[in-house]
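Help: why these numbers?

___
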Amino acid sequence: MTQSSLNSPQEGYSHEATVAAITSYYELLARVHPGSVSSLKHPPPGGWPQITSESFSILGRNDTV
């Protein structure tokens, strides 16, 4: 990937790629620090039911953020 393609507005944001990158990073950190792998919390397949748009609206969040 070239620098110009990284800055291209046509590429856009990929939720899946961002989640995968962040997850991979934290899993690496957990492997480097023994004993911390079990402290990583992954969301259940349907997400956490207590986290809703309404509960986070006071923070200015929406369904995307």
